[in-house]
Amino acid sequence: MRRRAFVETVVGGTVIASGWLTQRAVAIQSGVEPLPAELMGEDVFRFIQRIKGKFDRTLYVRILGAANDFKEGDQIVGVAAANEQSQSSARALLANTRIEDIDAHPPWQDELFQLLLRSTHPRT
């Protein structure tokens, strides 16, 4: 049994058996909603603009999560790729995105992020 199938079964089964959040269990077992197909050469931000009409942090975080290899925690919080096509699309979008554009739109900003930013981008 693949690790992903095992986690879906255990997490989903536990939630259903205990009566907690049955709707969430269904979402975990069915996976995250697949990403729409990207257009040739489209970057993350043009994709989000085309799909949502404006910048949408939730979709942005979903794309970043979908581009990574599968991790159980990503699936539980809803940012894992729904399938290999979604992962491939997310990776293509990121490959077309400039690093400085990603730096300008951090997925989260907290004190740790600010410390890392200051240490890697010292002011001159």
Question: What can you see in these coordinates?
Answer:
With 124 residues, the protein is an all-alpha fold. Helices cover 64% and strands 0% of the residues. It has helices spanning 3-18, 22-30, 44-52, 57-67, 72-77, 84-95, 99-104, 111-120. Helix 1 (3-18) runs antiparallel to helix 2 (22-30) and helix 4 crosses helix 6. The radius of gyration is 17 Å and the shape is globular. Mean pLDDT is 77; it is low at 14-31.
Question: How would you concisely characterize the structure shown here?
Answer:
64% of the residues lie in helices and 0% in strands. It is built from eight helices and no strands. The protein has helices at 3-18, 22-30, 44-52, 57-67, 72-77, 84-95, 99-104, 111-120.
Quickly list its features.
mainly alpha; 124 residues; 0% strand
Topology:
Elements: H1 3-18, H2 22-30, H3 44-52, H4 57-67, H5 72-77, H6 84-95, H7 99-104, H8 111-120
Helix pairs in contact: 1-2, 4-6
Note the beta-strand portion: under 5%
Based on CA atoms alone, the radius of gyration comes out at 17 Å
Count of helical segments? 8
The largest sheet, given as strand count, sense and whether it forms a barrel, is: none
How would you describe the shape? globular
Secondary structural class: mainly alpha
- Spans where pLDDT lies below 50 across 5 or more residues: 14-31
- Summarize the helix and strand pattern as letters: HHHHHHHH
- Helicity level, as a percent range? 55-70%
* Total strands: 0
Q: Whole-number average pLDDT? A: 77
